[in-house]
Amino acid sequence: MTILFLTNNLDVTLSLFEWIKQEEGDNNVILCSEKIMADFFSDYGKFCTVDYIISYNYLHVIGKDVITLFPHRIINLHISFLPWNKGKSPNIWSFIEGTPTGVTIHEIDEGVDTGDILLQKEIIFDFETETLKSSYEKSHLLMKSLFCENWENLRNGRVSPKPQNKKAGTKHLAKDSLMFEDILDYSDTVSDFLSKYIALTEGR
Fold it and tell me: The whole model's pTM is what?
């Protein structure tokens, strides 16, 4: 099986990329950071044999033209407990809004983080001791663990997808994070960050 691994953040995703290469063989895993469209696969011969696509910290939206080429064979790894906190900065928004925290592996559809859920796991943080940095790192460690433990079943289509609850959930765009950009310090505990956020916004 040939895997196309999509990412724009190797600082976070490299360890998982290397793990997949070890499992599937170096020549069977292709790394890509550019935006892919249907002609991507026809223009480059080496991509014509792709069997499965994994998106992890990938900045580009995958369009219908690609989705139709790989039915039920494109997954995304997202560090939120979907349907909560679709989009950008999911861990920070979960703290601000008091929504569930966790990680989710889901199929990709034409929306942003709206595809059917394959696997997910909730994680509980202690706001007094956990920092923004440590919560982010722990979320990614949990994500990688969940993926590695279930990769064999994922690649062979043995995990049944479940639709997301369309009556619940939240979504945030990159521009939404501008409101707390000036107070963002990843060494802060979650509690300290929330105190700063409340002070920043209570006068608005």
Answer: 0.94
